[in-house]
Structures are given as C-alpha cells and as structure tokens.
Specification:
Elements lengths: L13 H5 L3 E11 L2 E6 L10 E2 L2 E3 L6 H13 L3 E6 L3 E4 L4 E11 L11 E5 L14 H10 L8
Parallel strand pairs: 1-7
Antiparallel strand pairs: 1-2, 1-4, 2-3, 2-8, 5-7, 6-7
Length: about 160
C-alpha cells in the first residue's frame, strides 16, 4: 500500500501557491480487473471532450495524495486506495503550465456517479493511446504503460 508520507507528496508551500504559474494537479490511474478508468471532459469544461485521468487541483497546504482522495470522492463519488505513485509530468499549454502527480489506485467504497465529466470508460492498457487525450495526460499515459510488466505496451 502506498504511504501518504512519501517524499513526492510534500505539501505545496504557501509562498509558491500565491505566485503559481504552474497548476499542481493530482490524477488517478484507477485499475480494475485488467482495465483502466478514463474520464471524458464535458462540453462545458476547458479542453472539451478530451480524455483524462480523473483528479484535480491541489489546495493550499494539501499534499498530492490527500488531494487525489478528496477529488475522486468529489468527482466520482467513490473512495480510492492509492497503491503507488508514478513520476510527475510537466506540460506547457499556451496560457498555463501544469504538473500532474499521477497515482495508480483501485476502487474503494462507493458506486461511481459523475459530477463533472461527460462519461467514463474502462479501457485495456493497450488501447489507452488510441484516445483523444488532453495533452498533459499523454506523458502520464506513456509513463504508466512503460511501468507495466514488459515495459512499453505495443499493439
């Protein structure tokens, strides 16, 4: 089981929070029976209809793991169990930068109900790269696939 005391989950310092030019976001790679949960952004969200791993922005003084547990409960209505951290991924969009803190998880208690996404889907890892991803999520997908037994997933 993943420890919330892991050094990659340090709290976001206040002095960086107020000067932030880079969004700090946790995301969940939720595994279940050989499949991975992906979420499609709604038409009203920025980057409409792009696929992403669900999650959200870190609050002031919140660590990435705590943020993820909170965000998944808010967005999907379920609890998660964090199993491991993946490498953070940085991405620069034209108007902002983002650092994603991905965690491999499984579902805990609750039944999934969508609060902000258009839909979710359970996808085989080999099919993940076929989706129209939000650009910042692509390195997360690639790192995840490379972490699976056998390395890079190739169709």
């Amino acid at each position: 089981m993943y420890s919330l005391k892991d050094s990659s989950c340090e709290k976001f310092p206040q002095e960086k929070w107020w000067a932030m030019k880079n969004l700090q976001v946790s995301c969940a790679i939720i595994e279940q029976t050989g499949l991975v949960l992906v979420a499609q952004r709604s038409e009203t969200m920025s980057m409409p209809l792009k696929w992403e791993f669900p999650g959200g922005k870190l609050d002031l003084h919140e660590n990435a793991a705590d943020c993820l547990v909170r965000e998944i409960k808010e967005e999907l209505g379920v609890d998660i169990n964090i199993l491991s951290a993946q490498p953070p991924a940085d991405w620069q969009y034209s108007t902002f930068a983002i650092t994603l803190y991905p965690f491999v998880c499984n579902l805990g208690l609750g039944k999934i109900s969508l609060a902000e996404h258009k839909t979710i889907s359970w996808v085989k890892p080999v099919d993940l790269l076929d989706l129209d991803w939000a650009e910042a999520d692509i390195p997360v997908v690639q790192n995840y696939l490379a972490s699976l037994p056998g390395g890079e997933y190739v169709k």
